Amino acid sequence: MIYLLKTGFRDPYENMAIDEALMEFVKKEGIPVLRFFNFSPPSTTIGFHQRIEEWLLELEKKGVPWVRRPTGGRAVFHDGDLTYSLTFPEDHEIFGGSVPVSFMKISQGFKRGFELAGIRVELESKKGIKGTGFCFSATSLYEFTINGKKIMGSAQVRRDGIVLQQGTVVIRYPSPPFPHVPGMGAIEDVKEISLEELQDKMVQGFQEVYGIEFKPLSLSSLPPVPVEKYRSREWNWKESRPRQ
Are residues 141 and 127 in contact, defined by beta-carbon separation less than 8 angstroms? Predict the structure, then answer.
């Protein structure tokens, strides 16, 4: 059994704070949590170790908020996407293992979800060529593409025996003022599908592949959510001043 949490549209700071609270929850309960969520307003998230660049601040001037994720990787534009997190003990019998092993295991559930949704995807078997500061400019192991263009990316953080994997599925291309990202694809290239339908198919995919039962989880079950941490300059500017 694992928990299923759907939190809908929230601002970027609360979204990251909820995932941190989930790490504490899973550390105490020992049961994984699969969460689906969205961003409002449209936002940018950057990787934990990513430097701040001028394009990010230009987007901020145009009203696009940004936040630093607890996970690694590069910048993601959240507009027309479905975002997920999977939080689990590092030694979990289904999802546990090294970083590449756990990525591989988790990808199988999503792959089946895409199949159930009638979306033909390719699963990357090797690391792609290094791209820009944008997540969807290059693929990595066990990420998904459509016609050679990346439509899903993920990243992890591990702390105190707990793994948080965050990822994004591009359903439609981000609208201006977000810039075009070479190498990014979107499900809308091949199929029209709603957020709700895609969520449901992903849940079914996990159920079929792993033979697991989902139990609904509410936000009220979580420890305090550290929203102010993710709003703070101390957290978001931790990798120094903008790069020219």
Answer: yes
Task: Measure the CA–CA gap between 200 and 203, rounded to whole angstroms.
Answer: 5
| Candidates 22, 52, 121, 135; catalytic one | 135
**Radius of gyration of the CA atoms of the chain, in A:** 17
CATH no. of 2-236: 3.30.930.10
User: What is the distance, to the nearest Å, from the Cα of residue 179 to the centroid of all Cα atoms in its chain?
Assistant: 20
206 contacts 113 by C-beta, under 8 angstroms: yes
Bridge-based pairing of strands 214-216 and 149-159 is: unpaired
CB distance 6 to 202 below 8 Å: no
pLDDT of amino acid 132? 63
**Within 10 A of 220 (CB to CB), how many other CB atoms are there?**
5
Q: What is the residue extent of each domain of the chain?
A: 2-236
Q: Is 238 a catalytic residue?
A: no
Two tokens, residue 114? 């895409």
- Per DSSP, the three-state class of 221 is helix
pTM score above 0.90 = yes
pLDDT in tens, 181-232: 989 999 999 999 999 999 999 999 999 999 999 999 999 999 999 999 999 9
Residue pLDDT, tens place only, 155-190: 999 999 999 999 999 999 999 999 989 899 999 999
